[in-house]
Amino acid sequence: QQLSVEGLVKITPRVGVFVREISVQEITDVYQIKTALEPLMASWAAERGSEEQRVAFHESLTDLEQAANHDDVPSYVRLLEQRREALLAMAASDGLRDALGVLAGRVRLLEFRDLSQAGRLAESATQHRAIADAIAAGDPEAAYTAMQAHLQHSTVRIQELLASVEDPAVTESPESSRRRRAARTPRRG
Questions:
Q1: Can you tell me the distance from the alpha carbon of 159 to that of 176, in angstroms, rounded to the nearest whole number?
Q2: Segments in 61-119 forming alpha helices (H)
Q3: Other C-beta atoms within 10 Å of 102: how many?
C-alpha cells in the first residue's frame, strides 16, 4: 500500500500489483517539486523546531559525515532519511509531510545511484553541514538558502547521471529491470 501511495506500483484488484516505470521527465518534475518544497521544510524547521531539536539535529550530522568518510552509501542514505524525518518533525506540517512522502519513493533509487558516484558523498555531507548549521542557529532564511542550493546541485547531478547512462534501468525499479532482462533472456530447454 505504501508503494502505491508513493506512485511506485499500481494495484489492480483481483489482477495483481504492477511495478511502474518512472520516466526521465517525471524524475525531473519530482526534483523540481523537491526544490520548491524542501527549502520550506528547512526554513520551518529552523523557525519552529525547539532549541533541543535543532541541537540534536546538528549533532546527528557527525554520523552522516562518518558514513561519507567511509564511503558507506547505504548507511548514508538511511541517515538522510532519518534526518529528513527529523526536519519534518521540526517543521510541524502535516501537509508538507504528506506532499514529500509521495515523492520519497520516486527518488530513492536515483539518490542511491547518485551518491554512489565518486566524490558525491563528500559534496553532499558538506552541503548538509551548511543546512544543519543554519537550522541549529535558528536562521530560517539561511536554512532555506542552504537547502535550496543543495537541491539545485542534486538536480544537476541527477540530470548528468540520467544523461550519461544509456541503460534504461536507471529509471526502473529493480523488479521492472528484472522483468525486462528476463524478457530478453532466451530460455533453455
A1: 21
A2: 61-69, 73-91, 94-115
A3: 13
